[in-house]
Amino acid sequence: MLSRRIFSAIATLLLLTAGATPALTQDQSIVVASTTSTQDSGLFGHILPMFKQKTGIDVKVVAQGTGQALDTGRRGDADVVFVHAKAQEEKFIEEGFGVKRFDVMYNDFVLIGPKSDPAGVSGTKDIAAALAMIEAKDAPFISRGDKSGTHSAELRLWKVAGIDIEAAKGPWYKEIGQGMGAALNTAAAMDAYVLSDRGTWLSFQNRGELDVAVEGDKRLFNQYGVMLVNPQKHPSVKAEAGQRFIDWLVSPEGQKSIGEFKIDGQQLFFPNAEQQRS
Amino acid sequence: MMRAASSDLPLVLDRVSLSAGPVTMLDCLSLTITPGAPTLVVGPNGSGKTSLLRLCMGLAAPSAGSVSWGGRTDRGPARRAILFQKPVMLRRSATANVVYALGQAGCPRRLRAARAAELLERVGLLGLANHPARRLSGGEQQRLALARALARDPEILLLDEPTASLDPAATRFVEEIILMAAQSGTKVVMASHDLGQVRRLAGDVVFLVRGRLCAHAASGDFFEYPSTPKAAAFIRGDLVL
Amino acid sequence: MSEELSAWQLIASGDATLFAIVRLSLAVTLSAVAIAAVIGLPLGALLALARFPGRSAVVVVLNGFMGLPPVIVGLSVYLLLSRSGPLGEFGLLFTPAAMVIAQAVLVLPIIAALTRQTIEDLWHEYREELTAMDVGPLGQVATLLWDSRFSLFTALLAGFGRAAAEVGTVMIVGGNINGFTRTMTTTVALETSKGNLPLAVGLGLILIFLIILINAAAWGVRLWSEQRAG
User: For a pLDDT cut of 90, what percent of chain A falls above it?
Assistant: First the structure.
């Protein structure tokens, strides 16, 4: 009697799980390792339904930091990697983990800071000068510290500003090792400066006293690239469906849908695939 | 229920000793238990009654000497049932306790319910059949344990002071059940320190003092013609050291 | 889910996404607890009865594993299920099955350790009677499991609570994929990172409410059956 009860309980549970899981074999699906900035901004929510409608392919997005997303691709756990850290991406291709890299779009970073503006940089246009001011005044600054694309962009900008951040960092410079949203939450709680991609900033709700301090500098532009994981390294990669997704992203139709995505009337991502491909 | 082909009687203890570390519970004891009327094991507290029963059950191995059942020494008695001084009830209803014992004794599943009801009626617990066994009173639990023991249809039934904590009415009830079992062919071996009970039930009496066999005699002889001074003192009610 | 809506509005409006998330969370956690129970109950019982050299060490390690850090479990299962890992060929990473496995690993020590304690206590009580009735080892395990079922039920609830509330493992091995592996806890984490704190808190409250509801139901069942079986 005991064993029969346990058996029926397990059977019920398995049915429950099966019911909660969309049938895997019926529709095609690919796993895309991407960044929190694309997911949290809502871009995927905007473009993926269009792709699905056209091709029937289900795109499952695993949002990670760029470093982790590349690692996921390296291990063969994703079919497509869609990130923003060009140097790391090119290394990924060189190592043979990716087939070919395509530019897709760019967005821009903004320096976010408290309205009280202790570093006195609000409204300026020179990101290097602004960072130098922050460092000079020991104004609180939150760094992602997670090897993400945004984190590497931040490190590159410190270098541009002529600051060796490894040597200069002090109590004012806090590496939290978390995603963009967590970094913004921390900055809001501590009235600190933080470098964010515009998309995440615009869709971020818990702004507190934070506002945009520096924007518009060309050096704040942020290029996104997409790569198919090399099926020769990992035979499990769904190369055909993955390539269709990449082809669609860089096609006029995909590019148009990226350009159409807006938050509060602001365009977040600027498609730039065509000219790069010629 | 399957009847074992061979009998476990006579039960023979041959120069048996039982010790744990420096403590000797039984000392070079020889005894033969044969089919028939109940054998009562008596003696002062600490004289080794429980140890003797454990050896007879095959629950403990002797430190020296040998125990044999129907001539075999390789395993304990096949059709034994044991009633401990403080029986432990399974966390189930009274019926389920008996059904469990029936199942262990190999009673076919379809017969168990009817047989359990029969046994519960025999010990006067039919009215409490569906009660949780652990919420029964001490006397009721003792009777339920007896039903559980009888469910095994034992050839040897060992009881360790089954009435020690019961009132006279409950004691009489339990004694009647034991006598009934004995009359239907079960060999009863029972420890007791109640001389009145020994007079009422015993066919033969085993008298232990400090782990040694002090006397083994038919009940009448034990009381009328005590073979040792210690036995005489015990019967008189003196303290035996 | 639209971000302008509060969690309560979502419930009131019967938001399909929300219900899918709740359903997935419950299905994953209940499956994980069921699997952990099927393995952990007999394992704990065997450990309670078996006597072998090094047993104490095993018991101590098992008790220690009750506090396994979810992130470590998640990472280990991730490496195991990854395409580059030993079980990569099954392609389970970033699926609900991976989350079930990870949670089962997390909960198994809790269920096994509590079972061992419960069964060992009962075994001390039952040993003589069961030996006297010539109950074999398997029968002993079955009897002890059945007779301590009410205590074991509490052990299962403890496992359920731990699995339902945890976010570290399912985030790592599930990937928090929208509509596929997004559970209540990963949604809360995601909404928090979006700075959508009211929705995150609301979802958290729903989760707590569900856990209390399930515990209350379990408690009721226990009271009811305890009165019947004693």
Answer: 67
